[in-house]
Design goal:
Elements (H helix, E strand, L loop, with lengths): L1 E2 L2 E2 L21 E10 L2 E6 L5 E3 L6 H11 L3 E7 L5
Antiparallel strand pairs: 1-2, 3-4, 3-6, 4-5
Length: 86
């Protein structure tokens, strides 16, 4: 129960600013493009923008890399991803 907007509780509800913030839980969004593997690195060329993006070596990257190595040519991909600067 509250009285005049105050929380009546023995728990600590105070908020404190930290030097670095937590990374927000961002939702993945659909991407379509061409995947290629060259010089031990995966690249993804996004169709709508033409951006040539590096692919991180985590998650399902190994599956995508193996599929590409069977084709040995750029593969059209429909995926969900997150673009991060870094």
């Amino acid at each position: 129960m509250s009285h005049y907007g105050n929380i009546l509780s023995t728990l600590n509800y105070s908020l404190n600013r930290t030097a670095t913030g937590d990374v927000p839980d961002l939702k993945l969004f659909p991407l379509t493009g061409l995947y290629r593997y060259f010089a031990d690195a995966g690249r993804f060329i996004e169709c709508a923008s033409g951006l040539n993006l590096p692919v991180v070596t985590m998650g399902d990257n190994a599956k995508l890399e193996n599929a590409y190595l069977q084709l040995i040519e750029p593969a059209c991909c429909h995926t969900h991803g997150l673009l991060k600067q870094g």
